[in-house]
Design a protein that fits this description.
heterodimer; A: alpha+beta; seven-stranded mixed β-sheet; elongated; B: alpha+beta; five-stranded antiparallel β-sheet; 4 helices; 10 strands
């Protein structure tokens, strides 16, 4: 292939030049070029090496169907592999590299693989790497991984941003070729909201790649006029550079907009790509068709390509693919392509028509070209550049035709992937020798070449009618005008999948190096199902998804098995129809924005205090407040000890808070909580244990009675969303007859725990004058409303998670940080310190209070030693099931305290075994749920579940942690290590 | 398009099935307009009421209003529950002709005037955050998200606003 730039024509801006590099060599092109067209214009024909045999490859197919010319684009963090040169818009400074070759594209030593091709047949891996099995992980897999893949992904983080967006419309038109444009115009004129999505930069499709007349205009002029009219319609949105890649349920489509892929780098604040979710009431699929190849020996030689590619290069990009061009066609379109090339000034030397008569050739201006009827190309030669083909003529003679480009026109296959993704199986049309769309998803129609109507006039008519119909179905019956008119050119073709008789390899799937012989081998070995053939040979599994391979492979399979193509069937299709970067799916959700992080109400104060933060579920919480030189353990130990000796303050705002109000509020709560009977005085708090329907514990918390018919309940941070959902379900579904209403106030209130023997003294300096918080006025488990720090309304609950004298003070959330600062400032004389999540955990473990690790969905009230507390006579969710014999079995693992006998570190997750039992799962008797280094005890302690735990206090058992190498003897005891009588909390 | 913080006093009001009619009547008597049915907004001045769920509304002032909770609570009495949600939500005001371009990048709801009328309210999800949307005059939309994710919401809205304002 010796391509060159034509002297005139094309839709390129010859006044401007764009400099770019390919494999380090400088080139220039023009705006309007693709990388492929600019390289071809520069005479570059070798663009890649094949996947397996490293054979030289050039351009083969237009657009996304291109299997060969895959390049690495850009460099550094923006390096992107497997970009199709046919879809890469040229930009100034573009840098591209060929891939899958070493040391260079011209001289690829890996081409030695071609000599080993008798070994590398279909199923090579399956047959070769079966044994010895020990070699798989150590030798085979690493070696295969090194050899696999086509390009190199960037190793640095992607510097660009990506967006997701959602569009709603009445009519989605996929594809802006003649049918799509006609559909969008018609629907838009009717007044429907239309989204027209086009993969290319410009609307027009084949109207830009071929020479046509519509009405009195050229095809490209019609496309420009249509685009201009669409731009004036306020309810029409045209998304160019946008590929609709998936059809999903309910009229939902996925589409990728390449916002700035055509630039060297995105503009400031501009995303690289945008992922669209398009919700459409109706959809018109006008995705056109892909030209079919014919398989013959040497069909991968650079210079052999689909006629549609060469036609588009000549008409749209003003690039000739060669100086001696031959056309091998099975239908009328090859003649049309030859005529377009000739009209552009390309020399077409020979037309080889497989049909005995080529009626469509008559009238085409191909003077000077040699015409061979009933002839077939059986082999192409030339190595890195095509120089001749061998033709079997109608008489059976073999001729050599000299050419530097061979354009293959094997007919068309409608692009119907979107129509089949929801399960509608395509139907084979013997007249077209192609698959048409099968049963369509609700609301979808197909128009134009995608429906098998290849004539331009038919495309325009069908598109118009589909647009009118879709708009009408959405209630828009405006004036759509008349459909644009054009003649229907002849477009018949005969089916020809394979020409045998050549000596060289004949490739079915050029990207995956699957040959006709591989298909035959698969058939011989019994892989006669099309799905099996695909997996055994990898046919159609490349990044081009077999666009130019599938039908040819299917045709050969059908011939070999003696079945019809319709009977052989087509492989299933699923989204995406083109590769989509994971970054586009992620959109904004990366790095810090991977998911929303909830900040507690005192976050600002914690940052001021130098807290180390930690993600805890959905929250970002203060883990500890280190002083200079302290690590986490030292800081945590100091904080916990300070709470026990003086006072500390921590943020409990992350707890769920639910207000319950109404005449039946008490009854409602009693049905929610196993231990709560509803008998609670105003101004008092109670512990609440909530069961699931199956009798296991859902969560625990507190209930405070704020007024006669008003309560506030708290639930654990970890379970807050689930508990809220449960409460609403119970209210709305289980007991709608109860006169009660509920609201989540979790976000409304900051809630700070002030704990320690000096807590009351500090509190007295926080509440406003005249508010009595003495033990008499606010006893243990009491509640009172108040104002604090100068008129801020507050709720004060005297409840304790630490086991110390403690108060939880709730204020409006935006005052939480102020309250924290005030407590620390006014409480300084009393030694108050801030304490974080780690110390909070230490304090509650020392008291044996269960939290998320203990309330793990697998435990019962009985397991928590709360069986008697929870087993009240009233009805509640989970009551009946909680009494099942298996759930109150004394042998069940139950909550115990564990003290490391030698002071070694304990780890949560360790399994509990009898001291002398074998270290094996069969002797597993429980597990450790939470551990800490306890300043109160002076060593490592933990709580966990141990079979018959309460009966085993004093026994030494083994905490065995094979994952992290832990093996610690622990003494079993009560789960409460500090103040078992609870005197401190009541003090 | 511009994104700014909007201080709005918010009171959530909910009623039991039994107290619903009395709550509606009491609210109308106190404020002069009906609580809306469904996800709609009622009231034209201040406050307004937004339907955010079955028998559940958000009463919103035009700005800070420390007395709003008491006004609503006093109006409905014991027939309904009124809680101050001013601190529970961060409200963003999105103004300008590009507001729909911005919002289509962060919420999956149809904001075309045919689908999202002037009095429409949406309770939806915005990049993993719960969000309440309602219109505020002819060229603005208000978005209320949980206070705890205010920082993330601001970061997202600001970034998308820049993208919309620049290259789109």
């Amino acid at each position: 292939m010796t391509g060159y730039r034509l002297a005139s024509g094309g839709r390129i801006d010859r006044a401007r030049s764009l400099a770019f590099r390919f494999d380090g060599k400088p080139f220039t092109g023009h705006p309007g070029d693709t990388l492929a067209s600019a390289l071809t214009a520069a005479g570059v024909g070798l663009l890649g090496r094949s996947f397996k045999y490293h054979r030289p490859r050039g351009l083969f197919a237009p657009g996304a169907a291109e299997p060969n010319a895959l390049v690495e684009l850009r460099s550094g963090a923006r390096r992107e592999p497997n970009c199709r040169a046919t879809t890469v818009e040229l930009f100034d400074g573009l840098e591209a590299h060929s891939q899958n070759r070493w040391p260079s594209l011209e001289h690829d030593l890996m081409a030695v693989n071609g000599l080993l091709s008798p070994l590398f047949v279909a199923g090579f891996y399956y047959k070769t790497f079966k044994w010895p099995s020990a070699f798989w992980e150590t030798l085979y897999e690493p070696a295969i991984r090194r050899a696999a893949g086509l390009g190199r992904a960037a190793t640095a983080p992607d510097p660009d941003t990506y967006e997701t967006a959602t569009a709603f419309c009445d009519v989605l038109v996929v594809g802006a070729g003649p049918a799509g444009l006609a559909a969008a115009l018609a629907a838009g004129r009717c007044g429907a909201r239309v989204v027209l999505a086009e993969t290319d930069r410009d609307p027009g499709g084949r109207l830009l790649d071929e020479r046509h007349t519509i009405g009195d205009d050229g095809g490209a002029a019609f496309a420009a006029a249509a685009a201009a009219e669409l731009a004036t319609m306020p309810e029409v949105r045209v998304l160019t550079r946008t590929t609709v890649f998936g059809a999903y349920d309910g009229g939902t489509f996925g589409a990728l907009e390449r916002v700035s892929d055509h630039l060297a780098a995105p503009l400031p604040h501009q995303p690289r790509q945008r992922m669209w979710t398009i919700v459409a009431r109706r959809c018109v699929v006008a995705t056109g068709a892909i030209e079919r190849p014919v398989v013959f020996s040497g069909n991968d030689t650079p210079g052999v390509m689909l006629a549609s590619l060469a036609r588009g290069l000549a008409v749209r990009r003003a690039v000739a693919v060669g100086r001696r061009v031959a056309v091998f066609t099975t239908g009328d379109d090859g003649w049309a392509a030859a005529a377009d090339l000739a009209a552009c000034g390309v020399t077409v030397t020979t037309v080889i028509d497989a049909r005995p008569e080529a009626a469509a050739g008559a009238g085409r201006d191909l003077s000077g070209a040699r015409i061979l009827h009933g002839a077939r190309v059986r082999e192409a030669f030339g190595g890195k550049r095509l120089d001749r083909v061998e033709v079997v003529t109608g008489s059976g003679a073999v001729e050599t035709v000299s050419c530097d480009a061979l354009l293959v026109a094997g007919g068309w296959q409608p692009s119907i992937q979107l129509t089949a993704q929801l399960g509608g199986k395509p139907v084979f049309d013997a007249n077209l020798a192609a698959f048409r769309p099968g049963p369509l998803p609700a609301g979808m129609t197909v128009a134009g070449a995608a429906a098998g109507s290849y004539g331009l006039g038919a495309c325009l008519r069908e598109g118009h009618e589909a647009g009118v119909e879709a708009a009408a179905a959405c209630g828009f019956a405006g004036a759509a005008g008349s459909p644009p008119t054009a003649s229907d050119e002849a477009c018949g073709a005969t089916a020809l999948w394979f020409v045998g008789g050549g000596k060289g390899k004949a490739f079915v799937d050029l990207q995956h190096d699957v040959t006709a012989d591989d298909v035959a081998l698969a058939v011989r070995e019994g892989y006669v199902s099309v799905e099996h053939l695909k997996r055994y040979t990898t046919l159609g599994m490349g990044t081009d998804q077999g666009r130019t391979a599938n039908l040819a492979g299917l045709g050969i399979l059908a011939e070999l098995t003696g079945r019809g193509i319709g009977e052989t069937g087509l492989v299933l299709t699923r989204p995406p129809v083109e590769p989509v970067a994971i970054a586009a799916f992620a959109g904004h959700h990366r790095d810090r924005a991977f998911r929303p992080i909830r900040l507690p109400a005192t976050h600002a104060a914690a940052v001021e205090l130098g807290a180390r933060m930690i993600e805890s579920g959905a929250w970002y919480r203060a883990q500890y407040f280190p002083k200079p030189g302290e690590d986490w353990l030292a800081a945590t130990t100091r904080e916990a000890a300070a709470v026990r000796s003086h006072a500390g303050v921590t943020d409990m705002s992350t707890l769920g808070k639910i207000e319950v109000a109404g005449p039946d509020a008490a009854l409602f709560l009693s049905r929610l909580y196993a231990n709560f009977t509803g008998a609670l005085k105003v101004g008092r708090c109670a512990y609440g244990l909530m069961l699931r329907e199956d009798g296991f514990v859902m969560d625990d918390g507190t209930v405070a009675r704020l007024g006669d018919t008003r309560y506030v309940a708290t639930c654990s941070t970890a379970h807050a969303p689930k508990v809220w959902e449960h409460v609403e379900f119970c209210r709305q579904v289980l007991w709608p007859d109860l006169d009660v209403t509920v609201q989540s106030v979790s976000e409304a209130w900051a809630q700070l725990a002030l704990a320690g023997p000096n807590a009351r003294a500090v509190l007295e300096r926080i509440v406003d004058p005249g508010i009595d918080v003495s033990d008499a006025a606010l006893p243990f488990m009491g509640y009172r409303p108040a104002t604090v720090i100068g008129g801020v309304r507050a709720r004060i609950f005297r409840i304790s998670f630490s086991g110390e004298q403690a108060y939880e003070i709730a204020v409006p959330a935006r005052r939480g940080a102020d309250l924290m600062r005030a407590i620390l400032a006014r409480g300084a004389p009393f030694g108050v310190v801030p304490y974080g999540l780690e110390a909070l955990n230490v304090l509650r473990i020392e008291k044996g209070h269960p939290a998320g690790a203990e309330l793990n969905g697998q435990v019962t009230a009985h397991d928590l030693n709360l069986g008697a507390l929870a087993d009240k006579p009233h009805d509640c969710v989970g009551r009946a099931m909680s009494r099942r014999a298996a759930l109150v079995d004394p042998a069940r693992p139950r909550l115990v305290g564990l003290t490391a006998t030698g002071g070694e570190r304990l780890r949560a997750g360790a399994h509990l075994l009898a001291k002398d039992a074998p270290k094996a799962a069969a002797w597993d008797e429980g597990y450790v749920t939470s551990v800490c280094r306890s300043p109160a005890v002076g060593g490592w302690i933990g709580i966990g579940y141990l079979a018959r735990g309460p009966e085993r206090h004093g026994e030494v058992v083994r905490a065995y942690d094979p994952v992290r190498g832990g093996d610690v003897l622990v003494t079993v005891g009560p789960a409460c290590f500090v103040d078992p009588k609870g005197e401190r909390a009541r003090g | 398009v511009t994104v700014t913080r909007a201080d709005r006093a918010l009171v959530q009001l909910s009623a039991s099935r039994q107290g619903l009619a009395r709550t509606r009547a009491a609210f109308r008597a106190a404020f002069g307009f009906d609580l809306p049915d469904g996800s709609r907004r009622s009231g034209t001045g201040a406050p307004i009421a937004l339907g955010i769920g079955p028998a559940r509304w958000m009463v919103a002032a035009a700005g800070p209003d420390a007395a709003l909770l008491d006004r609503v609570a006093d109006a409905v009495g014991a027939d309904a529950l009124a809680t101050d949600q001013t601190d529970a939500r961060a409200v963003f005001r999105i103004v300008g002709p590009g507001r729909r371009d911005l919002l289509e990048r962060v919420v999956a709801i149809d904001l075309h005037p045919r689908a999202f009328a002037d009095d429409a309210v949406a309770v939806t999800e915005m990049a993993g955050m719960s969000a309440i949307l309602w219109t505020d005059g002819p060229d603005a939309v208000l978005v209320a998200v949980p206070r705890s994710v205010e920082e993330d919401a601001a970061r997202l809205l600001d970034a998308v606003a820049l993208a919309v304002g620049h290259a789109g």
